[in-house]
Amino acid sequence: MNSEGLAFHYSLLIFSVMGKKLTAVLYICLTIALLAGSAWGIHALRKREAHGLFVVGKAPSFCFTDQHNEPFCDRDFKGKIWVADFFFTSCPTICPVMTTHMVAVQNAFPDNSIGIASFSIDPETDTPEVLQAYAHEKGVRSPHWHLLTGKEEDIYRTANEGFNIYAKAGNTPENFEHSGLFALVDTNGNIVCRKENGKPILFYDGMTQEGITMLIEDIRKLMTNDE
Question: Does pTM surpass 0.90?
Fold first, then answer.
């Protein structure tokens, strides 16, 4: 075999060895990635099983203005457990009960460790100044309870599409329609809930003491799981 043939032969041999080494490296990397993914999945599953709550889905993104006339967005709750509801200050029916119950949720955690987002469905009336007066009147004391106002279309999109909590505008306070449900969001930004009789309740009844008791219990479950 001449020198050119030998060079070609050795080149093929080198490429063959290199190819085997590359395949081995890729195989090792793939194995490590799969193991890491499996470990993460098991960890996430154990976390979910630990608090025993059902994950409904991701909470929506939003950016509105709070009662302090400061911008507030969902990302400002990052790493925090929080509760959401939809109300308006001139509501003559269910809102006073909802707000009283939300104050009870606030007071159950005097260290201000949870967040609360109350979205006004009458943003034209509920300016930051109006929300501030309402907050003072109703006993809102936590720095992490944000009463929010903004563009009407964005508020209603957040309610009906983001949280799937019903809200509809009206011409008078009596004609507004909305749900009295509270949504619970975990530190990962997931809407979560307990199961009753094997079925997820999805949201908590903000109109009843039973619903508030369940909500407070499940917030504490989340807190214990995050320790």
Answer: no
